[in-house]
Amino acid sequence: MTLGEYKVAMPVSRGKYQPLAALWCVDEAALADYMAQGGASLWRFAAAQGVVHVEWPGTDAHDPFANINDPSGLADAEAHLSTVARTPAR
User: Fold this and answer.
1) Which residues fall within 8 angstroms of residue 80, CB to CB, at 6 or more apart?
2) Contact status, residue 58 vs residue 13, Cβ threshold 8 Å
3) pLDDT tens digits for 11-44?
4) pTM across the whole model
5) CA–CA dist 81, 76 (Å, integer)
């Protein structure tokens, strides 16, 4: 796969952008310049470099980019993965 004119391919899952799961193809000088000018936003840097948003296909009711930031989120993820592990492959 080539990104063509883009430097960033960012997945979008359920209407939410996922910059930490993006494919980034930028040089260090561009990032250093951006940060030297006070830039801190991944979204703004992606836009400045050229970004294509890629809709991530949903496979079931669980968000593949779900945040696991607390014990409740961890329990939900574990329950989902346990169910998936017990489901026979088709």
Assistant:
1) 62
2) yes
3) 998 888 998 899 999 889 999 999 999 999 988 9
4) 0.69
5) 9
